[in-house]
Amino acid sequence: MSAYGTMPFHLETERLTLRPWAESDAAGFCSLLAERGKGTPTVEHIRTSIAELLTATATTGIALLPIQRRAEGDFIGYCGLIIGRSTVEEPEIAYELFRRAHGRGYATEAAGAVLDAAIATGRKRLWSTVGSWNTPSLRVLEKLGFERDHVSTDDSGEVVWLTRSLP
Asked: What percent of the chain has pLDDT over 90?
């Protein structure tokens, strides 16, 4: 059993709701991933991915959560904690939003709520890894107090590793 508390899986901000995945999120998730320009996954593949995310959440006590705008009720992306390139003790914060939702502060708002949720688990540090080309994402993390730790290279190019100590 982990020495850390379970992350809250329902988060609300002034404009956003973050909640557990549902099968009904599959089509929106497909569309979001298609914006990456690497093809569109099938809805069935995404349903399997959602089931895997829910299983991982039950095992690790951390979650990647869909983001909905409260007023509109529409799915605009995801944000949460993942193991990714890190560990369950020091997880990564991850987020991705539809392009139509960029530039409105939603990523900062959602990530701020996830940061508070991570603090509530008793963790002492978070990581994030971002492509060096992704200036808007780096700006979001810097607003939230993340600092650059180092740079590595993978098949996609340069990856900036950032950390944030938690109170």
From this structure: 90
